[in-house]
């Protein structure tokens, strides 16, 4: 009976586990408005987020126990203020290497370099010899030192190997020196640290965990620090997080009240001995959990009290902080992801081809060795004149000859291939750096190839993954248009309401508060404001000036606004320019300049924004005693709360549709008169809700709903989230090149969708699918696959089904929450019964393992289906995603599509994605350098991506493919002459060339022309490359270099080697020279073949050259001249006298090449090699021309550059194309700070006074 009960419990637990982890219909549907759980969030943390109904006392007891348990389990990171020795205790040490130990607390120095002065040589040589080709030639060098098998002098391998190793080492050294410089620049920044009882200037790399530091305005934060105090009220500190998330709007942090009160003076900071227990270092930018123990009291710590490394202090004169995480432990470094060694697709293919050549080399050498053994047995043993004094058996002689042929034929695996590839890539990288058309003069920022190994991969991109904020957009919001009382303003009109195509922008000089930055062209709106004919117009801009949570600061008489979002800042700035300037605020008042007249209003309540409300309101009392509510919010929520008698409701709706069709971000404005009695009744409920200890936000939202109804519509604003210049054109060009764009952003769904339309990633004809649609489709597909996956599934061929009918233009917009739901990444609370300890049998373990395998297989199939579905869409936008999810999406496409990916971003939240993609591009702008430092390429504007891919990427791919095809060809043609010669020398491993010719062939005689083709060749110009993006597809389809092209080069090389050997052989068989001497000796024969080879391969690269310059022509004829010059020098009597054993071809060149017969033989050999190639090229370009051939043929006619035109939008009245992109922050604004008075500045003490005057009065918390 007990056994049955136990099995019932186990089965129940397994079902519960399966249900909790694999169900498609969760009780709680994903929330589109929130970013999903943090990357490192544990299941226990997720459990804590679930609401539960339980008795109050039980809840209190449970929370106390959980707090203690959490501290014991998670808060294992301990920090002692002003006590460096504490962190060096033995139990904080960890073993790094054998017995070498170091502290688990990282120092603050950042290290990205690979070598130091002592490790460079051994480590670099070790890394280079890990390459198969280099190691192979090292083995060859050793073999050549063995006299019994050496058929070539040792220097024929040593000299090229030293050149290859030397050039690669110099390149690696230059790269690493640049890394050293960048590391030193960051590590040597300075800040003030408490040492020996006072603040002293110290370098960042000297900062340690537990140090107390002081930061000043505009300083970068050197580590993750706990904010202790600042110069602002309540120790607020404003930080700019642009380097973390690309957002330039300021965010605020606030110290604990206890530290704000007692840690302002230098002497109190010196004696501060607080102890912190917190979570271990992790990558969660938005979360922190810990406890401060000080003065016999514990104080909870959260993310609002932590200043993260990489942020910048703004609008705060100074602040003090305690270092909690340093260096590699900081959150920004934890978010950097693992640095991956990136190699191109051509690299992998090239390695496989080199392995193929290895196999061919071994087979050919073995065949020739067997031939030699047979020949020795049949001929050599019976020919007395061939006796060499060694009594070896034929089989042993064949074995020795096997190694001899390995040495002779080693040039089939070209030693100079890798170094030549590196030189070409280095040159192409410099061309990218020097491209003036990718230089951004406004920020003095050139394009930069930060790696030199990926250039040709730029010509093979299938998918581009882009961030939105700061990458596609400038993150600058501009007030463009508005609709007031049903009338649209913002077009080009004069004061008489007449439209003009060309008109000067509005002059705001009449307004003393105008900042002069707003470009507006509707003079009629200014006329309406100044005349006051329509009261609604003034009311409209007054609402913008009063209904917000913006902070104001005066500097040198200028107003500076600090907004929770750039949208809100743009609206307040617009009101300021139109004559309604927000001047100041206190806890209970707000002061506005209304067309030059200052008026102060009592603020009765601020009803703040959140993602559920999608609106904010403010209730004010006018100087006349009237009470009004002003509200602004998304049209979808405002229209539900309007009074029935709103005459301009339909006109405003039409205006919203027009604004949305122009991809502007819309916001509705409305107001309401409130009676004194109504306000007093509502205020009682409001005060009661404000004091609720649990679910306070929900209680307040209910009270807000009661007052926000029967509103009078004033109009709507239209803000432009300014795209970077050329973004729509770039996306259009990339789409024509069959490159798919996916946008991955942490922004809201509506905002991301709006930008999709603005940059023409989405069009009015696009059918948009959302998370719920995709979930249903994938659920159906999984059911179908499960039904087909029976016993006979392996006998049925796989069926490739499409998710959508062909021909439709579809796009996918999915949020991070839905992404977790669909990809089965959602972390859920497991059944508690699984945590019970009970005996486990082998059967249970087997069932558990089988269950996990099924879940993994199911998850993998689900992910593959999602990728297949998403790739059928013309565009994909993932919004509200975490940095880890961005990287996950990139990895899924890499894994299941085997496609080449590129990720482009500008902030630290893009670093993981940039490192995961095959190629990472960083936007170097105002948002910091974190993404740039982790990228492979960087530039200042998104529009430069089209030139990077369509010009530099395509050219690099074509050049590299042409180089590799020719390189393999010339080496096969050179090496296989030895193979044909073997049939006539008893397979004796005798070389067909002079030793020095073999040594210098790849280094001098044939290297320069092919290097120049790899650096300079281009099939069409850069302008034509951009005009015809379809040319790009050859790289995506691997058409120019693959195994087929490799075998074509192999066959071409074999045929050329046959012609090079057999035509001179036939000419030499029965000949007599002019002087009666026979020129058919071995040395003359070697010179003839070598001369024909050099002329043939150099003329062949001339045939392969598409873009001729003087340098190309000089290199071809110069290489031939160099060959003859060196040959005559090496064959001279003088050098033979100096080195008789090394130079044995004395007089051969001069004797052989004075015979006309030899020259005729050389000319005939070259002609037979090249004329068929010329004929085939002519027929190919005439009968089967490629796309580039056609463009090249008509290039003069196509020189006029085509102008890109934006797609025309059609506005259809009555058909709503509105995409509500309400202009608010992603989080609550500053309303709590304002209403509590914590942000209101009192008289500020200067920094010097705070330091010097220990008895000064310090600001205390303003009573609410």
UniProtKB/TrEMBL annotation:
Residues 932-1186 form the P-type ATPase C-terminal domain. Its cofactor is Mg(2+). InterPro entries: ATPase_P-typ_cyto_dom_N (IPR023299), ATPase_P-typ_P_site (IPR018303), ATPase_P-typ_TM_dom_sf (IPR023298), ATPase_P-typ_transduc_dom_A_sf (IPR008250), ATPase_P-type_domA (IPR059000), HAD-like_sf (IPR036412), HAD_sf (IPR023214), P-type_ATPase_IV (IPR006539). Keywords: ATP-binding, Cell membrane, Endoplasmic reticulum, Golgi apparatus, Magnesium, Membrane, Metal-binding, Nucleotide-binding, Translocase, Transmembrane, Transmembrane helix. Gene3D superfamilies: Calcium-transporting ATPase, cytoplasmic domain N (3.40.1110.10), Calcium-transporting ATPase, cytoplasmic transduction domain A (2.70.150.10), HAD superfamily/HAD-like (3.40.50.1000). Residues 81-158 form the P-type ATPase N-terminal domain. It comes from Leptonychotes weddellii. PANTHER family: PHOSPHOLIPID-TRANSPORTING ATPASE IC (PTHR24092:SF48), PROBABLE PHOSPHOLIPID-TRANSPORTING ATPASE (PTHR24092). This is Phospholipid-transporting ATPase. Belongs to the cation transport ATPase (P-type) (TC 3.A.3) family. Type IV subfamily. Mg(2+) binds at residues 467, 469, 906, 910. Residues 187-250 form the P-type ATPase A domain. The active site is at residue 467. SUPFAM superfamilies: Calcium ATPase, transduction domain A, Calcium ATPase, transmembrane domain M, HAD-like, Metal cation-transporting ATPase, ATP-binding domain N. The gene is ATP8B1. It is found in: Cell membrane; Endoplasmic reticulum; Golgi apparatus; Membrane. Residues 38-53 have a biased composition (Acidic residues). ATP binds at residues 467-469, 568, 609, 632, 665, 745-747, 880, 886, 909-910.
């Amino acid at each position: 009976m007990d056994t049955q009960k136990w099995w019932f419990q186990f089965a129940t637990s397994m079902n519960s586990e399966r249900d909790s982890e694999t169900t498609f219909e969760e009780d709680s549907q994903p929330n589109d408005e929130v970013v999903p759980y943090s990357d490192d969030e544990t299941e226990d943390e997720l459990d804590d987020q679930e609401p539960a109904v339980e008795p109050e006392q039980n809840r209190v007891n449970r929370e106390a126990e959980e707090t203690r348990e959490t501290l014991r389990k998670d808060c294992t990171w301990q920090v002692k203020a002003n006590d460096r020795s504490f962190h060096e205790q033995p139990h904080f040490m960890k073993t790094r290497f054998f017995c070498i130990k170091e502290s688990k607390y990282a120092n603050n120095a950042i290290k990205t370099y690979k070598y130091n002065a002592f490790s460079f040589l051994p480590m670099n040589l070790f890394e280079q010899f890990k390459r198969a080709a280099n190691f192979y030639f090292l083995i060859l060098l050793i073999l050549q030192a063995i006299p019994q098998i050496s058929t070539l002098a040792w220097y024929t391998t040593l000299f090229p190997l030293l050149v290859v190793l030397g050039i690669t080492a110099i390149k690696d050294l230059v790269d690493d020196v640049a890394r050293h410089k960048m590391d030193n620049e960051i590590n040597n920044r300075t800040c003030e640290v408490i040492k020996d009882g006072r603040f002293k200037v110290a370098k960042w790399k000297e900062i340690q965990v537990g140090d107390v530091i002081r930061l000043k305005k505009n300083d970068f934060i050197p580590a993750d620090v706990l904010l202790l105090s600042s110069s602002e009220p309540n120790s607020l500190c404003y930080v700019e997080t642009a380097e973390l998330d690309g957002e330039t709007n300021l965010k605020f942090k606030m110290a604990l009240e206890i530290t704000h009160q007692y840690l302002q003076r230098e002497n109190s900071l010196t004696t501060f001995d607080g102890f912190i227990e917190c979570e271990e270092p992790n990558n969660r930018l938005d979360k922190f959990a810990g406890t401060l123990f000080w003065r016999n009291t514990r104080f909870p710590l959260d993310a609002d009290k932590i200043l993260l490394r990489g942020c910048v202090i703004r609008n705060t004169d100074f602040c003090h902080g305690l270092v909690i995480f340093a260096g590699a432990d900081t959150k920004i470094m934890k978010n950097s992801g693992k640095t991956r060694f990136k190699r191109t697709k051509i690299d992998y293919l090239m390695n496989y081809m080199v392995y193929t050549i290895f196999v061919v080399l071994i087979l050919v050498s073995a065949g020739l060795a067997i031939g030699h053994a047979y020949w020795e047995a049949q001929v050599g043993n019976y020919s007395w004149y061939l006796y060499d004094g060694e009594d070896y058996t034929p089989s042993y002689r064949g074995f020795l000859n096997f190694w001899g042929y390995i040495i002779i034929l080693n040039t089939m695996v070209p030693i100079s291939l890798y170094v030549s590839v590196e030189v070409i890539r280095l040159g192409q990288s410099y061309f990218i750096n020097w491209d003036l058309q990718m230089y951004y003069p406004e920020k003095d920022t050139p394009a930069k190839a930060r790696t030199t190994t990926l250039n040709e991969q730029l010509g093979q991109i299938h998918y581009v993954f882009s961030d939105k904020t700061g990458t596609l957009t400038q993150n600058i919001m501009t007030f463009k248009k508005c609709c007031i009382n049903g009338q649209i303003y913002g077009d080009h009109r004069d004061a008489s309401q007449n439209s003009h195509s060309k008109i000067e922008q509005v002059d705001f000089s009449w307004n003393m508060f105008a900042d002069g930055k707003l470009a507006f062209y509707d003079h009629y709106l200014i006329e309406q404001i100044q005349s006051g004919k329509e009261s609604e117009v003034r009311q409209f801009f007054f609402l913008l000036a009063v209904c917000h949570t913006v902070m104001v600061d005066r500097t040198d008489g200028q107003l500076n606004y600090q907004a929770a979002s750039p949208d809100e800042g743009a609206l307040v700035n617009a009101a300021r320019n139109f004559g309604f300037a927000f001047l100041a605020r206190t806890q209970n008042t707000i002061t506005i300049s209304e067309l030059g007249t200052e008026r102060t209003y009592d603020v009765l309540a601020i009803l703040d924004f959140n993602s559920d409300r999608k609106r904010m309101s403010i209730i004010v009392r006018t100087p006349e005693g009237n009470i009004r509510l002003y509200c602004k919010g998304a049209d979808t929520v405002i229209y539900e709360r309007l009074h029935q008698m709103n005459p301009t409701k339909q006109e405003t709706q039409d205006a919203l549709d027009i604004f949305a069709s122009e991809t502007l971000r819309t916001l509705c404005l409305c107001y309401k008169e409130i009676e004194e009695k109504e306000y007093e009744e509502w205020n009682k409920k409001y005060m009661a809700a404000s004091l609720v200890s649990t679910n306070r936000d929900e209680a307040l939202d209910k009270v807000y709903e009661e007052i926000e109804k029967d509103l009078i519509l004033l109009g709507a604003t239209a803000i432009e989230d300014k795209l970077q210049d050329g973004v729509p054109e770039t996306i259009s060009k990339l789409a024509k090149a069959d490159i798919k764009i996916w946008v991955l952003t942490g922004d809201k769904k509506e905002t991301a969708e709006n930008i999709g339309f603005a940059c023409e990633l989405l069009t009015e004809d696009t059918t948009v699918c959302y998370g719920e649609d995709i979930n249903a489709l994938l659920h159906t597909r999984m059911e179908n696959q499960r039904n087909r996956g029976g016993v006979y599934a392996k006998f049925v061929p796989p069926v490739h089904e499409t998710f959508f009918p062909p021909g439709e233009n579809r796009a996918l917009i999915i949020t991070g929450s839905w992404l977790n739901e669909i990809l089965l990444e959602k972390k859920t609370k497991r059944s508690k019964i699984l945590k019970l300890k009970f005996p486990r049998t082998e059967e249970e373990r087997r069932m558990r393992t089988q269950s996990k395998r099924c879940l993994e297989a199911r998850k993998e199939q689900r992910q593959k289906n999602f990728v297949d579905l998403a790739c059928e869409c013309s565009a994909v936008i993932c919004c509200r995603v975490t940095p880890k999810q961005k990287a996950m999406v990139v990895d899924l496409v890499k894994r299941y599509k085997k496609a080449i990916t590129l990720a482009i971003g500008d902030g630290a939240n893009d670093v993981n994605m940039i490192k995961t993609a095959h190629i990472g591009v960083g936007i170097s702008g105002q948002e910091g350098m974190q993404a740039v430092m982790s990228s492979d390429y960087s530039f200042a504007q998104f529009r430069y991506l089209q030139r990077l891919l369509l010009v530099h990427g395509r050219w690099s791919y074509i050049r590299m493919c042409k180089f590799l095809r020719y390189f393999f060809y010339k080496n096969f043609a050179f090496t296989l002459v030895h193979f044909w010669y073997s049939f006539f020398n008893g397979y004796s491993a005798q070389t067909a060339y002079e030793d020095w010719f073999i040594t210098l062939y790849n280094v001098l005689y044939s290297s320069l022309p092919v290097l120049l083709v790899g650096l300079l060749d281009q099939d069409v110009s850069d302008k034509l490359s951009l005009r015809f993006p379809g040319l790009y597809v050859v790289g995506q389809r691997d058409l120019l270099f693959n195994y087929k092209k490799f075998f074509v080069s192999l066959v071409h090389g074999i045929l050329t080697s046959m012609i090079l050997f057999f035509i001179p052989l036939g000419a030499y068989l029965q000949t007599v020279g002019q002087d009666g001497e026979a020129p058919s000796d071995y040395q003359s024969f070697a010179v003839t073949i070598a001369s024909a080879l050099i002329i043939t391969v150099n003329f062949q690269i001339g045939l392969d050259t598409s873009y001729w310059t003087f340098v190309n022509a000089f290199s071809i004829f110069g290489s031939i001249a160099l060959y003859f010059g060196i040959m005559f020098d090496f064959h001279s009597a003088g050098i033979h006298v100096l080195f008789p054993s090394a130079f044995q071809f004395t007089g051969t060149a001069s004797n052989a090449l004075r015979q006309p017969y030899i020259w005729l033989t050389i000319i005939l050999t070259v002609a037979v090699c090249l004329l068929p190639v010329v004929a085939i090229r002519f027929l190919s370009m005439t009968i089967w021309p490629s796309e580039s051939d056609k463009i090249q043929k008509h290039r003069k006619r196509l020189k006029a550059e085509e102008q890109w035109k934006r797609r025309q939008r059609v506005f259809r009245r009555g058909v709503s194309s509105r995409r509500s992109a309400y202009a608010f922050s992603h989080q609550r604004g500053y309303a709590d700070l304002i209403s509590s008075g914590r942000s209101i500045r009192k008289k500020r003490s200067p920094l010097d006074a705070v330091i010097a005057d220990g008895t000064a009065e310090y600001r205390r918390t303003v009573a609410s």
